[in-house]
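haha ok so turns out i had the wrong file open the whole time. this is the CORRECT one, sorry everyone. sequence first:
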Amino acid sequence: MAAVLRLLMLVLFTAAPALSQDSTEPPPPKASPVIRVSEESLPRAGGILVFGATGKLGLEVVKELVAHHETVSVLTRASSDTAALKDMKINILTGDALDPESLKKAFTEGPFRAVVSVLGGHGGDYRVDSEGNKNVIDATKNAGLARLILVSSIGASDSADASPWYVRYFLKDYFAAKTVAENYLKASGLDYTIIRPGMLLNSTKAGEVSLAAAAPTSMGGITRAELAKLVAGTVEDKSTFKQTYAAVDAKRAGLWALLTY
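then structure:
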């Protein structure tokens, strides 16, 4: 028994220096955890300034830009209903597209890298479509920005023949104002994209939408939500710079399709 105890003490004594030596060494460094962050999940540098955001189409455009992880600011008049924008925690600036000074001030609230205008007049007053958009174009240039996306309409400029004669007759002032804005933008030197939708719809039924460079042969229609996706998709797409498109839905091309789809 004594021999067994002596053998056990010898083993412990022999192992002790190694244990002591191990305990004085600092633990091996552990690799830092690798945190993977998707670039698409972060807001991009420089925000998007949207005009006309309180309208039905404007709200859809803002929603889509937010879904693209954009930092969005909007310019609205003091009398506008901004409840929906506040719910989305959008940066709201107060001003008027018909007031160049308020636009100048709005552009100092940046930094911005692109502008989207979905301005539209109502009740026969289309000054915001022409003068308002011209002011936005000037303010964009003066702020040193190059990118502007303008939502116009099929029926403006060289797409006039695509709209039915009765639409051209009753909305001639509207189309004339949109044409003024388009021509002014094309001559501005900005990296513009002009998007012309037909009739705007609220349907939740999905269609087959695209941007067509060729002039449309009929007005047709497109839902506001799907048009908003097309608009948001052009912000970073350099192939759309200095281009004019019709926003078309193959399933809603022509009056009959609008009535039956």
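The chain has one domain: 44-260.
again sry for the mixup
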